[in-house]
Amino acid sequence: MSTTDDRKTRSCVSCGINIAGTNAAAFKCPDCGAQIYRCAKCRKQSNLYECDDCGFTGP
């Protein structure tokens, strides 16, 4: 998958919106290291997220 395609498929793990071109956070899961993306709105509201790979949940 190319970098351009990867940007198009990134979505917030909390609400599911496409985060391409937004002020989103990208970080690694504290448990398994999988890449997680969260939109600014979900970060600001401290919405829970769950890692798709290992099930880790966080605020």
TrEMBL record:
Residues 12-55 form the Small zinc finger protein HVO-2753-like zinc-binding pocket domain. It holds the Pfam family HVO_2753_ZBP. Signal peptide: none annotated. NCBIfam families: HVO_2753, PRK14890.1. PANTHER family: SMALL ZINC FINGER PROTEIN HVO-2753-LIKE ZINC-BINDING POCKET DOMAIN-CONTAINING PROTEIN, ZINC-RIBBON RNA-BINDING PROTEIN INVOLVED IN TRANSLATION-RELATED. This is Small zinc finger protein HVO-2753-like zinc-binding pocket domain-containing protein. The lineage of its organism: Archaea, Methanobacteriati, Methanobacteriota, Stenosarchaea group, Halobacteria.
